[in-house]
Predict the structure.
Amino acid sequence: MAAVFSRSQAVVGHNAAAYLLDFAGFTRMRPVLIVPKGSNTRSDLARVIESDQFGSLATTKRQGIPVTTAPETLLSARRRPR
C-alpha cells in the first residue's frame, strides 16, 4: 500500500477498505484513498477521493494500513455483481 504511505493524510476507503476488512465478495483491486478536501488528487498508484468530511471519518488500522472502519465502509462500498 505504497499509495497510502506516500501521503501524510490518507485512508483506504470504499471497496478497497472492504477487501482489507475481509468483507465477503470483495477482491483485491486498485486502492481507493480518501484525503482531505483541497489535497492533491493525482496518483498513479490509486484512485484518490477528496472528502470535506475527512476529519470525521471513523478509521482503524488493518495490517498497519489506515482504513475506514467496517461501519464507515458499509456506507460506501458496493459489491460488484458476479
